[in-house]
Every structure is written in structure tokens, then in C-alpha cells.
Amino acid sequence: MSKSQDELFRVVEYSAEAAERIGYSDYSYWKSVFQNFLKKKSAVVMTCIFFGLVIFSFVALMIGKFDYQHLVSESSLAFTAPNSEFWFGTDNLGRDYWCQVWYAAQVSIKLALIVAAGECILGVTIGCIWGYVRSMDRILTEVYNVINNIPMIIYMTLIALVVGQSFRNMAVSMICIGWLTMARNVRNLVLMYRDREYNLASRCLGTPVWRVLVKNIFPYLISVVILRLALSIPQTIALESTLSYLGLGLDINTPSLGILLRNARNYFLNYPYLLLFPAVIVSMITVTFYLVGNAFSDAADPRNHV
Amino acid sequence: MAKYTVKRLLQSLVTVLVIATIVFLLMRMLPTDYYFTEDQVMKLTEEQKNDQLMAAGMLDPIGEQLLRFYGQIIRLDFGTSRRIQNGQPVVAVIGSKFTVSMRMGLISMAFSLVLGVALGILQTRNKDHLLDHVGAGYTILVNAVPSLVSYSLVLVVGSKVFGLPSLYSTRNVGESSILPIICISLSSVAYYALWTRRYMVDELNKDYIKLARIKGMATKDIMVKHVLKNAFVPLIQYIPTSLLLTISGSLLAERFFSVPGMGPLLTDAITRYDLNVVQTLVILYASLGIIGVFLGDVAMMILDPRIKLVDKGGTR
Amino acid sequence: MRKKAAKVAALALAAAMVLSACGGGSSSSGSGDGGASGGAASGSENAGSGDNASSSGVGEASHAITDLVTYESQNNEQEGFLMQNTEKSADLNVLCNVYSPLLEVNNKGQLVPAVATEWGTDDGGLTWTFKLRDDVKWVDYNGNVMADCTAQDWITGLEWVMNFHKNGSNNTSMPSALIAGADDYLQYTKGLSPEEAMSMDNTKFLEMVGIEAPDDYTLIYHCTQNAPYFDTVCTSACLYPLSQALVDTLGVENMVGMTNEQMWCNGAYIEKEYINSNSKTLVPNPEYWDKDAQRFDSVTIRITDATQAYQLFENGEIDHVSLDESTLRAIYDDEGHKYHNNLAEMRPRKYSYQMHLNYSKNNEDGTPDDNWNKAVANEAFRLAWYYGLDLTDYWARYNFIYPLHCENLAYTMKGLLYFSDGTDYADRVVEKLGVPASDGETPRRLNQELFEKYKAQAMEELAAEGVTFPVEADAYIAANSQTALDTYNVLKQIFSESLGDDFVTLNIGTYVSSLSQEVIVPRKQSFQINGWGADYGDPANFVDQERYGYDGAYYAKNYSNINDATDEDLIATYKEFSEMAEKAGEICDDMDARYDAYVDAEVFMLQHALVIPCYYDVSWELTKINDYTKMYAMYGAQNYTYKNWETSVDAYTTEQYDAFKAAAGE
What we know:
B: 0% strand, C: D-Maltodextrin-Binding Protein, domain 2, 36% helix, 16% strand
């Protein structure tokens, strides 16, 4: 406001847009979010580590001595402990574990991120419609009830049997089921805020629905959405390993951290490093998203901005 | 309220029927060969297969099969199992299993509610201090390590260090239930702690709490009378569902410890194409799920009188 | 607040205790496993008795396990209690303890009397007469005598099997082929309405089918053909008895769904407890006819995830465990491991594993895979595989210590049949194949020179036919089996190293729940490795599975799809082999001549690599059970009968097992 004092008065033409900006301040929601977020040192550090991890997984595959696609099993090398030749040791068939771990890490991170993003987009969109548009409430509630009450294992089995197993199928089917929780959370929040007085006022003044949703309600959702996302990432990894255990997971040529962990459980008493390496990476991913999710969700709560 | 209840239950009935129909149709999408065992598929001729399918009514038009299926549901006749326990009524198969799962589920839930909520409260009270971080660490760890691995660890530690039996045994239910219950509780403790903390922290930021503080109310009272109670409203919603669905058991934990419960039943029934079992289970779970949601709404309404079910309709 | 919280916690705890206690009953009985607590008798103390063990067997009660605990994996859970109604080994392995057959086998695989004391045929196997014991009783779940077991019960049993509406054509293949009129009866009942068929008694059956009981303790079967091996069929589920009195008590419609508490037993044990996907408990049948048989006070069969079995054995919760490759390796490589001296090599399982080539393969999309089909029809191509594949690493997946013990050169299982001079049928096959004697290091069939010759020939001939190299071969494994994936990764490497990447590449695919439904029926596989276990003691049971244009040829029809092959040379070879097999089957009077003729047919088949022998299943275990005292038959349903088993409270040592093996002459 101090700037305006330096300017000279002059007559301006009427502009509807300018009229809207009567109470204008340079408060920007997202700017505040990031400012608050950056104050959390631990979260910032973890974010850096996570990006470091992702970048390193590519580097690791390049500098590794073995290529994942051309791994050979050599029974005499089975269960070699980590050494200068095999940085992470070898698995039960004598194959280099380093490249398996990093390749699997890439696959898992990719899957988790795609699923999280998909869940988020689908869940928030449907959740907003569900909560805001009264006429859709009944239908969507029923759809939700039906989908949510059919056990996931039925979908997964049918998809694996009828469509086949692949990375894409896995991602799509996990999104198709994962959006439900997100949508319900969003819908409940939207229901809470849609009839607040300021929204009523906005609507009376003719603000379009999308604007009410995006500008007035969305900021309240961010916190929950982010937290949900942070939890969904480790869940995706865990779910994927359970599905692999049942034979409904990724196709065999795509290793994932879940699969490595699943296999390692048979050997970890004798060869703990087989469990350790993938477990550390999974933990790092999870910890990152948990801390970042919490910090971001705190930062995203507009009530913390003042 | 009574009218609302009846209306809502009737609606639920329709939902269950829709679910049953969808599952019925989904399962029929599989080729009829899945009706037979591995050996039968190879050894029987097409003619023999047709004879058996015909005798089982699998070759009738889908509409006719569906009508027959509805007829059975109405008569509450869920048929007999084909593969899980050959020739046994599905109700008997489930009957022998659900008590086991439910008992374990309830114990584990009691534990995790008490432990989880307590942990959540402690975390909130010590926000950003050591205890909070310990709790967060636990939550992260449980979520980070896939359950297959954490169960293996529990199994090894439990049986090697504490000498607990690693297989469920009906002769020694108490002791042999300990490890599976721990496994089931691992993640739910974390779940309750996480959300208790989350909702309580949210609540703490509200204006009325600030007012209460200014008024000079003791922190203890604020915590119990205002924060916990209000934070519990969103939590309580899910508790009836969790309670009812303890019946479904835990797939992995029960597989792991050979608990004769409901957990692996659905998966087994699907892969063995035991249709009657699949359909009955789906109907059972769906009904319980829907009833649970309804009870959750009621519980929420009791705890927070501002929430009205009747005029909004269909809130969850 | 703290007080309140404590109260809540205490309440919850108390509730938990009550809940767990009311389900539990007493927790005193200690997991029902007598083995672990048995005491400190050291392995060396038992070692001396190893030599005479296989003959004496009994006298060591004080060192033996009284309550046996064994295990099965989850997908091997028992599904039913009616022997006639099941063909699944998961069921039969339990039920063989509960029902007694006419004949049993001993630990050498020879037929011995069971309910039938005398048996024989006077007309070259057309009519078979069995004299039965008169002291066999049916008892109920509590051990009360319910009825006498007579020849009528075998008639009821067979009627049940052959009645389509009662039994849904389970177990019908052998009686249909061997017993006069049985197949007609099956077709006849199929034509009836379910109600009519379910209410059938034995009158019509006795009219139509060649089975009769002149008195209560004599049973006569009439065969469709000269079947000198018919007595071996008596060990199979299709010729087990079924109590008519029980059928009358429970009602025909409730028989398939009967529970362990409703069933009647005439076998060594009563199935006292059945908890689906947890455990089964057998207790001795007090009225069992074989009073001398040594039995356990109880046998508990636990269901568990196979990957955990080793841990359970370590905790003393089970009495034997088969070892997977990695565990075996860990124990074997570690000199100081507590089980290092307890590794025991198992006897071969009864299956002979073969690589069945698919002569009419389809692509994923259902169109014929011409490239593969042309290649595999070429004899030089197949022979290159036959001589070139060095399967040592593959066998090492099963038997890491002695891979060559898994080497399988013949088609028929060894130990199944013997010539009158005592020569093993399978040995005769190997002899006629002319492979060099074993040097203890390299597989006997491997022949680099011949491989290179055939490879060059195949590549030349096939290139002319427009086949592109490398030929892609597809093999399928279960999607949830890491073990299978590891094994096939090894196999893939064997293909690459033995045959060369320019010649053949192996692709590994997966199926979700059913091999046959997802792979074999749509014909997506290039080859499938399966093991065949004999149904009865005759080479026909093996060799006939590969015959061309023969309905009963299980593998040729379903896996090799030879009847849909188009290559004329291939068909001619197959036809020649089939004729040889058919002629061999016609010899009924002289068993040696019959076997010789079959050997020739088998050798012809192998020399043209129509099928490629793969391996025997010989793996390793840690065990407190002397496997050499178990029934050990290559056919029938009885190997899991817990009768006359010799056990030790401590795991047997490797030396003891070697001694058992030497004593058994293997």
C-alpha cells in the first residue's frame, strides 16, 4: 500500500477487473506456502536427498559394472557379500545386486509417483464435483459405495487374468482404486466449506463455480490432499509387494523394491545385506514423503499464514 | 430418525444387490475352463466338460443364471463350496472361520485404539519434541517397511527371542495368537496415532482453544474436554466399519501364521473359482461395510450434536 | 487425565485377556510336538543303529517320535473327505491314512497284502480274484465300530466312481479303460436325470459292470483286456471301498460334502481334527486290522508357507523340512552350521520330468507361430537340443550338492518296473540308447560333436524353409513363484550358453492362476516341463501318453498338440513310434517280451527327440524321519501312509542317511 502514496492521482477508466481487486494485497497463497515450507529445514533437506536419490539412481546404473538387462546367473558367485566388484553383493543366483536395487528403485519411484499423481488428479476432481454439485451427490455416493465395497483383490485378479500384467496396467488399476479415498476426503471438506458465508456471498455476486472452488475452497483442501499423497506413496510400494506375493503384481521382467524385499525375506537371516539395501531406499522414500508431506501440509494451511 | 434409518437401509439393500450383481457378472467374465481344476482341464474332453458345466447350470443364459442367483439370495441360500471345502455349505465354511478372525481383530483393535490414541495424544502434547519424533519415527517405519518384511521380522524375533509359537494352534490359542495380533496391530497403531495427532493439532489451532487458554483453562482440561473430543469426531466415523470388518481378517498375517481365519479365503476362492464362496463373501463384506458407515454416521452425530444426518442426507 | 487413560488401558487389556482366553482353553498342552522336547540324545548315539535300521525298524521306540508333526503348503490343503471324489494329491495324501485299499506297497515298492490277503489271475489278466480279510471294520469319528467292511463296499465304491451324477466323472479314467462295462455304465448314468442317478443302487451296476462278490469276502474283477498289471491299480483311489451303510446313513446327496466328523474309516488312522488352512490331526484307529503296524500316537499336518518351514523346523515345530536351494547352500557352505552334518538327500519323487515340445504353438494373439512350428518339426533342430543342452545348472537348482543325481535319460520312471532278472526297465532304456557311462562330472547325454553337427544341419535346412534365427522359444511360469523365476532364469542362461544366441532364445512368460487355462489350452508355450507319475505298474502308462492319434495320450494330445501338427516327416516318425507302442501293448503273456517291446518304442521316441527327458526330483531335507521306511511306490495313492515309519527325536545325520541308502541298494 505504501507504493500508492508515491504515485500521483489520476482518473482511470472503469474496469471490472480492477474493481474486483479492491482489497488487493500482494499476499500470494502459493508464495506463503513455499515461504513457510522453506522454514522447515528437515523437510527441505529430505527433499534434496530425495531428488539426489532419484538422480543418483540413474547415475548408479551408469557407473555400475553390470547392466540389468544382461545379468547372468553364476551359481558359484551366489550370495557374495558386498565387495569392490559387486558393490551391493550378489543375490541367490549370483547376479549383481547393485544394478537390481537401483533399477528397482527407479521402477518403484516411478510407479509411486504416477499413482500418487493419478490419484490426486482423479480424486480431487471427482471429490470437488461430488461435494459441490448437489445433484451428483446421490449418484457418486452410490458409485463410491459399489466400487469401494467390492474387494480390491477381485479387480486385481481379473485385471491380471483378463488384461495381463504390466507396469501400465498396474499403475492404471492402482489409480482406479486409489482415487476413492482421496475423493471421499475432498468431498467431505468441500461439503464443510461450500456453504460458508463468504462462499455464499461470492456465489451471489456471480462468481463462477470453478472460481469459488479454485480460489476459496481449494486452499483448504491442499493440506489434506498433500498428507494423503505422502501416505499414498509408501502404500503404493507396500501394496505392490503384497500383490507380487500373490502373483498379481508387475510382470517378471520389471523388478521393484517390493519384489526385492519380498525375496530378501527368505534369506535375510543369513545374508542381511539383501534386505538392508532395498529397505534403506524404501525407508528414505517414505521418510521423505512423510516429512515433506507434513511440512507442506502445515505450510499449506492458510490459517498458518498470518 | 427412524424413517431416515429405514430409508437408508433400503438404499443400502439396493447397493448390496448391485454389488452382488457386478461381482456375479465379473466372475462370469472368466472363461468356463476356470471351473475345472488344472488336471481336469487337461484330462476331460470338451464333451465331458460340457456335461459337468451343464449339470452345474453354468451354460444357461446369463440372465437365467442371474435370476436363479437372486432367488437364492432372497431365500438366503448361499449354496455349497466347491473347492475350499468340497460340498460344504458356504455358510458352514465361513462360520468355522470368522470367529477366529474376529476375535483376533477385536483384540488387535482394542490394543491399537488404546495405544494409537495414547501415542497420538502424547505426540500432540510434546509437539516438535522428542516424543513426537519417536512417534513419527514409528509411523514412518511401519509405513516404510512392506508388511511382508515386517511380519518376517516379528516372526523371527518372536520365535527366536521370546520362544513364541510361530504357527497358530487351536490347542494353544492364547500364546499362538500373540504374534499374529502384533502383526495386525503394527500398522493400525500407527494409523490411529497419525490421525489422532493430525486432528488434534488442527483443533489446537482453532480460535476457541486460544480463547480457552486466555480464559486460563488448564491445558489438561483443554486437551481432554475440547481437543480430544473434537479430534475424535472425524476418527469415530471409521471405527464401526473397522469393528465390523475385523471379521474379514488379515490376508497376509493369517497366511503367515496359518491362522484358520477369513483373510486368505477370498483370494483362495477366487483363484480356485469357488463362485459361491466369492459371492457370499462379497455380499457379507459389502453389507458390513455399508452398515459400518451408517453406524459411523450415527456415532459421529452422537459425539457432535451439530451434525445432522436427516436434512443433509447421505453424509458419510 | 493420566488416571483415566490408565483405566481405559487396563480395561482394554482385561478385555483382551478375556477374549483370548475364552477361545483358548488351556494353554498348557505345549504345541503337540513331542519331537523337540525329546531330550539330549545325540546324533552319534543313533548312528550305530543306522545299519540295521531298514530291516529291524521297530525296536527303537524310546528314540522314536510318538507325535509326528509334518507340514503342507497352503495350496495343498485338503478339500474333501470322500476318496472316490478326488484326484488331488492334497486330499489323497491324507485320505490314504483313513481308508484301507485291497493292496498296499512296502518300502521297496512291491505290492503287499492289505485288506486282500490273496489275489491273482488265472487267464493272463482278464479276471482277477481277491480274497479279503474278515476282520476289517468301519469305525466312526470316535472309533466306534459301525459296520463290517466287506466286498460289497468295493462294489459300492466303484459304483460311486462310475456314476456320473454322484461323482462328476472323477477317477473314471482307469476303470473306464480296464474294467468291463464300466465306461458303459458311466455313459448310461450320464443319460439319466440327476435324481434318477442319485437314487441308483448297485443292481443295475452289477448287471452292466464286470465286478462281482460271490460272498462277502471274495471280490472278482473282469477286465476289458488282458491286464497283467491290474493288481497295481488296486492302490489307486478309484478302487477304494465305500461303506454302503454310511451312504445309507448320511444320504447320497451329503456324501461329497461330508466332514471328518461324519466319515467312517477303515484305515490306520482317524482324522480327528480338520481346521481348514491351519492343521489336521490323525489319531490311530483302534480297530485297524493290521495290529502289528507301528503307528504314531498322533500325526499333525500343519499348513504353512513353504518359505517358513525351515524356521519351524529350527524351532522344533515340525519334524522334517525340504530345503530350497539357498537354505541348502547356506547350510552346506557353512562348516560350523548346526545342521551341517544333518543334510539328507531325499529319495527321488515318483515323477519323471520331460520336456514336452509343442508342435502346434500359437502366438499370444492366437495365430499359429509358424517360425517355431517349422523349427520344432525339424528333427535336427530337436536333436541339437537333445545333445546340446547342458542341464547341470538347472539340476543344481534342485540338488545343489549332487546335480547329476537329477539326471534323467529315459522316459519311464526308474524303479517302476523290473524285468524277471531284476533289471530296471529304465536302465534297459538307457542301455539301448547307448549313452556313455557317467564320469561323475558331465551329463551323459551331452555330446558337443553331435550338437554342432545337428545345429549346423538344422540352421541350414530351416533357413531354406524361411525360418528366422534365433528361434524364439516361450516358457511359462507361475507369476507368484520367485523360485520358478529363478529356475527359469538359469534355464534361459543354459539355452544361451549351450545352444547359442544365434540359434535359440528363451523367453519367460507368466500365468496368474492356472497353467492349463492360461497357457496350455491356448497353446502359448514352446515347451513345457512336466513330471508324470505312474497310475499303475506298466510301461503303457508312460509310453502311451505320447502316442499319435490316440485319445488317451495325455501329453501328445494336450501338451505336444501333435495331432494338429502338419509336418509330414514329423507325423511319420510319430506314427512309427505309435505303432511300436501299440504292438508292445498287445503282448500279454510274456512280461519280459512286453517290456522289451516297450523299451524299443521308448528308445525310438527318445532317439528322435520327440520328447526330451529332463530331470528326476531329488532334493535335500533335514528330517527326523527315515524315508527309506516309508511306503515307496511309483504308482498309487499310498506313499503318505504314516505306517511303520522309523523316526528319531534328533534329525538324522548325513552318514545315517547314506547308510540307509546303501542298505536299500540305491
